[in-house]
């Protein structure tokens, strides 16, 4: 029997990034639906009972809103796509400044399907990010980042923790108002949403002050002793590496660019950036209490997400009709595509059960390795 423990947060983010890549490489609604079902199953099975785990529903609603807005914009802006007209709205011709653009007009079934496919793709990417946010502990994610990304990681952790904190604040404040005899029921809650706004903002402000005080007490913002020459060298390495990576990626994507600017420039830029990261990490000195370790479940979870993304990416190059079906035919599915997408479900069995508040023995055991890296 596996002991409950938290999976490494980077493993969950690697899995989610792979799912997002897979979603961005296809507009097949059946594949996108399978991806969404797989992500939802993993979240419902592997999430803990911590406050950030309740934020997944918000990302699902954001995805639904994205699909609806995408369809509404297609109705508003209209189009010249011929096909089966579903309904016709009065056409509004814009002035000569926006020649060729008209609002409303006939709306066809083909335009509806095109908007639905594009909206589902963007919604799947958003929900994949929400899954990582619901599965990974943001505080443990921050301490897992390398020292060079210490300040950026702190800002990103605070940013991605906003939605879970707002969800937790709304839940607690709504429960308190119901205990005081506030409105109950779905429609009454919607009408009473204005009563939630000020308490939620006040609670968020109090949490921000508490977070700032805690970070200040723990020495966040301190830097090591580096000379001006070392700072200039580190900045030059980082900028040079960034330029090399940008040129290499552009040349890799542009078939007309010289091949000398593709992989060699990309590899050189990454090498310079790596040296710059090592040099930048010397100015941050921090300790890690109970450092997270990569084990077999972490590797399996990360590889499943990356594998799903790689399979769908390869499908987009080898079988364009399946990855990007038109709106005039029924989207097709192939066995390799389905099996590649189903790799995203493997964490249901590979990931250890999450610890819960009712399981006092689920606390992570101290790592036998001493803390090697310390940031204050």
UniProtKB/TrEMBL annotation:
Coiled-coil residues: none
Gene Ontology CC, one term: plasma membrane
Keywords of the record: Membrane, Transmembrane, Transmembrane helix
Record's bilayer topology term: Multi-pass membrane protein
InterPro entries: ABC/ECF_trnsptr_transmembrane (IPR003339)
Residue segments, region Disordered: 354-376
Composition bias, Pro residues: 354-369
Record's keyword annotation contains Ion transport: no
Pfam families membership: CbiQ
Localization (cell): Membrane
Transmembrane segments: 12-44, 56-77, 112-136, 235-253, 259-278, 299-316, 328-350
Keyword Ligase in annotation: no
Name of the protein described by the UniProt record: Energy-coupling factor transporter transmembrane protein EcfT
Lineage: Bacteria, Bacillati, Actinomycetota, Actinomycetes, Propionibacteriales
């Amino acid at each position: 029997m596996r002991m409950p423990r938290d999976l490494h947060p980077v493993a969950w983010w690697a899995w989610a990034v792979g799912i997002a890549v897979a979603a961005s490489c296809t507009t097949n609604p059946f594949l996108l639906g399978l991806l969404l079902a797989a992500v939802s199953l993993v979240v419902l099975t592997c999430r803990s009972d911590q406050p950030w785990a309740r934020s997944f529903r918000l990302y699902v609603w954001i995805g639904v809103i994205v699909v609806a807005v995408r369809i509404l914009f297609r109705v508003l802006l209209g189009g010249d796509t011929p096909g089966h007209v579903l309904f016709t709205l009065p056409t509004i011709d814009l002035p000569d400044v926006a020649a060729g653009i008209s609002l409303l007009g006939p709306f066809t079934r083909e335009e509806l399907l095109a908007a639905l496919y594009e909206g589902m793709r963007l919604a799947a990417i958003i929900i994949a990010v929400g899954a990582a946010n619901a599965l990974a502990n943001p505080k443990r994610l921050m301490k897992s980042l390398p020292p060079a990304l210490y300040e950026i990681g702190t800002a990103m952790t605070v940013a991605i923790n906003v939605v879970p904190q707002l969800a937790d604040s709304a839940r607690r404040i709504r429960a308190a108002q119901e205990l005081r005899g506030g409105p109950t029921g779905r429609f009454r809650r919607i009408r009473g949403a204005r009563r939630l706004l000020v308490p939620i903002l006040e609670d968020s402000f109090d949490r921000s002050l508490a977070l700032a005080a805690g970070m200040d007490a723990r020495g966040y913002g301190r830097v090591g002793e580096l000379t001006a020459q070392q700072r200039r060298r580190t900045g030059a390495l980082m900028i040079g590496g960034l330029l090399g990576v940008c040129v290499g990626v552009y040349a890799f994507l542009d078939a007309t660019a010289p091949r000398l600017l593709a992989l060699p420039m990309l590899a050189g830029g990454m090498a310079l950036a790596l040296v710059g990261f090592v040099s930048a990490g010397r100015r941050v000195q921090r300790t890690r209490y109970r450092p997270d370790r990569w084990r077999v479940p972490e590797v399996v979870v990360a590889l499943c997400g990356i594998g799903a993304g790689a399979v769908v990416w390869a499908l987009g190059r080898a079988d364009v009709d399946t990855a990007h079906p038109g709106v005039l035919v029924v989207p097709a599915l192939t066995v390799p595509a389905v099996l590649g997408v189903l790799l995203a479900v493997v964490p249901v069995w590979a990931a250890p059960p999450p610890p819960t508040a009712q399981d006092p023995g689920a606390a992570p055991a101290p790592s036998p390795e001493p803390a090697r890296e310390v940031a204050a």
